[in-house]
Amino acid sequence: MKIYFAGADASINFFYNNGIEQLLIAYPFLKKKQIKPNQKFFIDSGAYSVMTSGITINIDEYIEFLHKEKYTIYAGLDVIGDAEKTKINNDYMKEAGLNPIPAYHFGEPIEYLNYYLDN
Fold first, then answer.
1. DSSP readout, 16-43?
2. Which terminus of the chain is more solvent-facing, meaning fewer CB atoms within 10 Å of its CB: N or C?
3. How far apart are CA 96 and CA 65, in angstroms?
4. What crossing angle do the helices spanning 83-95 and 110-118 adopt, rounded to 10°?
């Protein structure tokens, strides 16, 4: 079983200094800090950062980043509060040759979860 530590963005040096490399890192943090890519990272799209801080994420730049850095574990670009847009983004990323882990948020219509399970 692999465990990824979430919330590492604010304390990345703590994890590195303790030999922990499997971290869930938000894409906006990676982009902003320009830290060394690490294949053990689980890349989160940063939808929560978008919702809480007003930043924006360009899906094509996110896709390009994932291709360039060759990450293998990453989330689709979700839109909190918009299950249809999240689905559209996930499908768009798949069409671009990626295999994102889709995001399903509690309270969204169950049809979206079933779609992800079927696809």
1. HHTT---BEEEHHHHHHHTPPP-TTPEE
2. N
3. 12
4. 10
